[in-house]
Amino acid sequence: MKIAVCVKHVPEGAGRIDPGTKRLDRAGEGALNHFDANAVEEALRLKGDGDAEVVVVSVGPERAADSLRKTLAMGADRAVLVTDEAAAGSDLVATSLVLAKTLERESAELVLFGQQASDADGAVLWAAVAERLRRPVVSQAAQLSLEGETLRVKRQTEHGYDVIEAPLPAVVAVSDAINEPRYPSLKGIMGAKKKPFETLSLAEIGVDASHAGDAGSKTEVLSLSEPPSRGDARRIEGDGNAAQAIVDFLAEKRLV
Amino acid sequence: MSRPSNFPPPFAAGEFVAEPTDPVDERIEVGVLIVGAGPAGLACAIRLGQLLEEHPDVAERLGDVPVALVEKGKQPGSHLVSGAVVNPRALRRLFGNRYRLEDIPSYGPVHGEAVYVLSKRTALRIPPPPTMRNHGNWIFSLSQLGRWLAERAEEDGAMILPETSAEKLLVSHGRVVGVRTGDKGQNRDGGPMGNYEPGADLVAKVTVLAEGTQGHLTGVALDRFGLTADEPQVWELAVKEVWRVPKALRGIIHTMGWPLRTRARYREFGGSFIYPLGDDMLTIGMVVGLDYRDVELSAHDLLQELKTHPKIRKLLAGGERIGWGAKTIPSGGWYSLPKQLHAPGLLLCGDGIGMVNIPRLKGVHYAIESGRLAAESAFASLRRGATPATALASYDEAVAQSFITRDLREVRDMRQVFGRGFFVGGALASAMTVSKGRLDLGKMRAEPDAEQPLLRSDRAASYPGPDGTLTFDKLSSVFLSGNKTRDDQPNHIRIERKVTKDVAELWVNMCPAHVYEIGTEGGDGTVTVNVAPSNCVQCGAITAKGGRLTPPEGGSGPEYTLT
Amino acid sequence: MKALVFVEHHGDELEKGSLGVLAKAAALAEGGDVAAVLVGGGVRSLATEAGSYGAATVHVAEDDSLEPPLPQPRVDVLARVVQDGGYDTVLFANSVLAADVASGLAARLEAGLNWDLVDVESREGSLVGKRPALQDSVLVEVGWRTTPQLALFRAGSFDAAPTGGGEPQVEDAAIELSEHSTGARIVGQEEEAASGPSIEDADVIVAGGRGLGAPENFTLAEELARALGGAVGATRAVVDAGWYPYSAQIGQTGKIVSPKLYVALGISGAIQHKVGMQSSNVIVAINKDPNAPIFEFSDLGVVGDVHEIVPKLTELVNSRKSA
User: Fold this and answer.
1) From the list B475, B530, B534, which residue is nearest C271 (CB)?
2) Each residue's pLDDT tens digit, C138-197
3) Is A216 helix (H, G, I), strand (E, B) or coil?
4) ipTM of the modeled complex
5) Which of B69, B144, B163 has the most A C-beta neighbours within 10 Å, making it the best mutation to test the interface with A?
6) H-only helix segments in chain A
7) Contact residues, C window 127-156, toward A, CB-based 8 Å cutoff
8) Distance between CA C271 and CA A225 in Å, rounded?
9) Which residues make beta-bridge pairs with B391?
10) Is the minimum CB–CB distance between B476 and chain C shorter than 8 Å?
11) Is the distance from CB of B318 to CB of B245 less than 8 angstroms?
12) What is the pTM assigned to this prediction?
């Protein structure tokens, strides 16, 4: 069995948007998107001591290799990085296409995603990828188990839990509540260097440059600005009428 | 008045020395193990890489991983903070023709310098003393330099293991055989969490400790092998910020005087530095000797106070604070260097053993040079037919012949006459003339910092409150250091928790990261000190002033990039 | 602009978030027509209500097989509605379900999707979306290069507003499901116990800090939270001190939340806490210290004693509720 995990290398710390390109400045230090660590961990748990292959896939700059090596250090078997100038600045449509093509090459029975990307605060990628792969998708998985060829997922929603079954091959996005990612052991870190690591260009996965990157994107960033300030902050002093004043304020804002 | 040394921390070096305990086939074997990916450790790794390339026969016998570095920070550079104006000689020696200074990321050579004696509103320029001439030196961000050196070390074949702390020194039959790395995934009580990962025995033929100031295993090793100097080590605490500024600063600046108080009884030695970082940034830092006595002294707040000086305020006008960091600097100099710089299977480098020239405020190039020399001795000990003991002893000899020894010896007595401080000899003389002899610096320090008696003088009255533009509080500074340590980690700071109010307040004010807080009063004149270990930026001040810092879980602490 | 809004329902109630987006779409259309699409088990009966919140046309895809709230069948339905109806703009209010529908639809139609939007406007004939980025420290304006334009709005971005509109035109939507859309099946469901919302989902959070004085005083926060129908949060300092569990910790090393209302009791507002809640819609802070940093980023700052103010506040809120 093969499990593919899609991960992203995201800027570390306080991100900065490059005013020139209006894109996230990815030149600084980066790290594995911590939500993706849950997905890698889940794949490794499903693998257990068995002989399933866990392959980690990413689309990003060359530097993203650091994050991929961390997943290899955690225990993944193989890493694939699609890195190509032409893929930079891809929106959802373009990114999902590049990822889908890469995943088609792998033909994994199960594709896992993390809950969201900490840089774009995006929680949408997997459904688009699943659509392109024409596979069932389940998101917000708080619990995941495999019974033969059937996936059983406990999905967390605003209202409670759904228990969903889906046949393999399938795509699942795990929530950060699903597990606590393991720390790579020292042996793992050292062994990571020897594990297979493939670097591919867009051409090698069969995607035309015009369908990726900015060229292939259907949305764009127009401008950046300071967020609107909170407006006039109001101040009340003293205990006397404070409670009533607060209620009046809340009522005005239609919060009570 | 109490003193911190009345309340020794629950710490015994012996706790951190052990035999390897993992089954033999589970121990991780490397050729040379370097603890610390700072300038010393990386220079050692780079030099070893060069030597092993020239001598593949030796490399072969070192196994799969000839050179490994463990680094407790998130990545090399995460725990590096310094000024820094660096003497380039050690870098030139390390790289020879391979890289020129211009190839190394820096902020260029020093273009002029000024020294000022400050009072609250004035700045009196004095001629830079001989020890403060920085012509020919280059300005670096040490964190950035660390990242660059790490890339070179990896290119040369070294394996860097970040987020890995070296917790115990592995000693077998009286010989250092490696380190045991720290556990991960423990909760506040030290119990295992779901993702608990025990440390591992990392064994090596030679172990090089390059841990920097307050090096944990360095301290343990000095104790274990009886190498501690007779003269106690003492430290300064430096807190600095990096600012983006609209107007470039041309040359480097050092100041003395205000806001430090010059009267001898306060023992407030130190000064500040302001260095340009290219055309649109500068770094400003405050350095204070930890032998100070006032319980309310706070280096962080002194830095904030410093910035309110009219001359300095002007330099920062229209600017934005973009970085902050804090770290101790060993300042005992020559007399506090260990009796021997090696032990069986072990070599000691850099700030960890106090290779710092405080009168010149230089240490980075000594660290690099000592790392380079350690590499050569380590290599010599690995050659066929070598006698390891003799080969490692050659390191002491090499250091004795190097500019490290020459420089540290040269300034060894300046401390005698003037205590510590940046300015010695002519500088003090000119300052004394200018101030009409009112400067009185008192006697040389011979006691450990923690033995200084404490006093109170309402010192905090002059600290400016945080305004969020020029001056800042500690917590927002910790945030700016990139520290996102998880809160439920075990407490890595060893202190006696029931102490007098004076000692408690001393620690609360001393710590730049707001780790300590005063808890309940004991009624018997004692209070309980509460510790928030996740704030800790591992500066090491607590070790100087009565407690003991041990390494937390690997990967914790600050994530410096600009410092 | 020919707009279609994906209106969600739970049980037999239309979701307020979707209705808010519907109201916004109606406002954008400036008199033009806005359509809604309802997909589910017995949804036809909800069409009238959708009409009264701004939909001139309601496409209804009603079938028992569509009752489970799964995204992929909805992608099939919406794709047909969009293509058959010639809609150039499709709007969604964020939810676990809606996010997957929007994303799947974007891939199906090769259409641009902008998400996490807090507002949208029409500028010179083009649609411009606004979204915060980098922990709400920057506001980004985004656009679409092609049609259809898909927009996913942050929960609670707009208020629902009944327009008094008449009966909408109801049209049956074609239901033709792809093979892969029918793979997933819901085999069980569990509604969340009525112990109150989780911190992540709560519309209201009442958080306590050291200013509460003692662990027992967290009952002040709990009672106010109950009165407001919200969840209880805590600062790192009090969690460290053992006053409240780590699962309630809000901040840099705890949870990041953005509820409609955040009430901070005895919280100073250190940046480590601020980054966990600064994007809350409305922030009310009560603190004894007039210089507490939290007052710099609250909408209403109350300098006073939480022990005096909060019980009264809770009482007033409760009596409003029962009135």
Assistant:
1) B475
2) 889 999 999 999 999 987 788 888 887 778 999 999 999 999 999 999 999 887 655 567
3) coil
4) 0.91
5) B163
6) 34-47, 65-74, 92-106, 125-133, 186-192, 242-252
7) 128, 132-146, 152
8) 22
9) none
10) yes
11) yes
12) 0.90
